[in-house]
Design goal:
It is built from 14 helices and 17 strands. The chain is of the alpha/beta class. A hairpin with a 3-residue loop joins strand 11 and strand 12. The structure holds L-homoserine.
Length: 429
């Protein structure tokens, strides 16, 4: 084994960074044996040195992250700061000074992955980011390496723990969205500003990364159709239950049937209780991957938290260090298929639509006619009347999202339709 250590700079020492530092210290011998050389934490860049946690060597702490990545003797930079800047500038500076990079930064990789990969390649460095998607769950490496000989057609999963926790609480107790969010916040599952999670931004970044890797093409964050869970009501959950379903925030990346394009979307959807994703509880994540030869694979586990995310970071650190010792690099960006990303209107799926209508003769026929005129076939209709008004729940067969949108637009024009209470896609059947 080489005795000269590989030097590692850690950018960020919050919940994830401090776990990375702790495991690097406590598992130093195992890491050295697996890599073939010792790894040494050479510096830790933080914004607030007074907040550095127990067990983190204080003598390594600096507030000058730029000077740390420019040192020239750093082999690997671990970036767990998050956000776009200064993370992007520090990563590109690290490449320019000969370091490889391990990042947990989903927002940055989703926004700027192509440019970062190009910078890594230009400098003969690695860019690894297993921790950016679904915490501890191995997904990036299985897609980039284990399935590199197969053809992936679909990635479908729960990739945001906060929203899964909220929807699970709503499902379990009948609580409304606000009440379930309050519980998630009190228990530390939701951040003080939960926007990134509840509006689907976090899941959309992960979907962009997964779709790009799975289909060997570029999928930008803006290409991902995004809807969060803030409009999901207790009535939606109750309606899902009546259909033998539950509601989950899903990230769905699909190759079109003709293979000529892909789609990527994040939205709440009803899934049957018999589907394995329905039993993913609390803040857990789970992702289905469907490939030509492999068939269906499911990956399940903790998608967030200091120690699970640190596990993914350290796995990447070992891989990148091994590459360094071999004088090689691992897989870079693979975007050779250049498949276009189709708009949401082209997505074909089933819909559950809840309408408030007048309860009088001919209304059902009127509503059914609007569906027929837009080429959307109805699977089931359930009506419940009360005091001259009725609630009408229509579940469709598979239809294009654009056709469904036009149908709903036309339904809103009918005098007898008082309102469209909810529209939710039905997946996983
Ligand atoms: N906030 C994310 C979640 C974890 O709730 O799953 C980090 O991506």
């Amino acid at each position: 084994m080489r005795t000269r250590p590989l030097k590692v700079a850690l950018l960020g020492c919050g919940v994830v960074g401090s776990e990375v530092a702790r495991i690097m210290t406590t598992h130093a011998d195992d890491l050295a044996a697996r890599i073939g050389a010792p790894v040494e934490l050479a510096g830790i860049a933080v914004r607030r040195p007074d907040k550095v946690r127990d067990g983190v060597p204080a003598e390594l702490v600096t507030t000058d992250a730029t000077a740390l990545v420019k040192r020239g003797d750093i082999d690997v930079v671990i970036e767990v700061i998050g956000g776009i800047e200064p993370a992007r500038g520090l990563i590109t500076t690290a490449f320019a000074h000969g370091a490889s990079v391990v990042s947990a930064n989903k927002a940055l990789v989703a926004a700027d992955g192509a440019a970062l990969h190009a910078a890594a390649q230009e400098h003969g460095a690695d860019l690894y980011y297993e921790a950016a998607v679904a915490g501890a769950i191995p997904l990036v490496r299985p897609l980039r390496e284990s399935l590199a000989g197969d053809k992936v057609n679909r990635v479908l999963g729960i990739v945001n723990g906060t929203t899964n926790f909220i929807l699970d609480k709503m499902d379990g107790s009948g609580a409304g969205y606000s009440e379930a969010l309050d519980e998630a916040t009190a228990l530390g599952y939701a951040e003080a500003d939960p926007t990134a999670d509840v509006e689907g931004f976090d899941a959309a970044a992960k979907a962009a990364i997964l779709a790009g890797i799975a289909f060997h093409t570029r999928v930008r964050l803006d290409d991902v159709h995004r809807e969060g869970i803030t409009e999901v009501t207790a009535a939606d959950i109750a309606s899902a239950k009546r259909m033998g379903c539950t509601v989950k925030l899903l990230a769905i990346c699909e190759r079109a049937a003709d293979g000529a394009s892909v789609t990527a979307r994040v939205h709440p959807a009803m899934i049957p209780l018999s589907h394995p994703l329905a039993s993913v509880r609390e803040a857990y994540n789970a992702v289905f991957v469907e490939a030509d030869a492999a068939g269906q694979l499911m990956f399940y586990g903790p998608g967030a938290g200091g120690s699970p995310t640190a596990s993914a970071v350290l796995g990447d650190l070992v891989a990148v260090c091994r590459n360094k010792l071999a004088g090689a690099t691992g897989p870079g960006e693979s975007a050779y298929t250049r498949l276009p990303v189709s708009p949401m209107g082209d997505v074909v799926t089933r819909y559950h639509i809840s309408l408030d209508v007048a309860d009088k003769p001919g209304v059902l026929a009127q509503v059914a006619t609007v569906f027929a005129e837009h080429g959307v076939s109805i699977d089931t209709v359930r009506q419940q009347g009360k005091d001259g008004e009725a609630s009408l729940v229509v579940v469709t067969h598979r239809a294009a999202d654009a056709a469904l949108s036009s149908t709903v637009g036309a339904l809103r024009e009918l005098d007898t339709v008082r309102g469209v209470a909810s529209i939710m896609r039905v997946e996983g059947e």
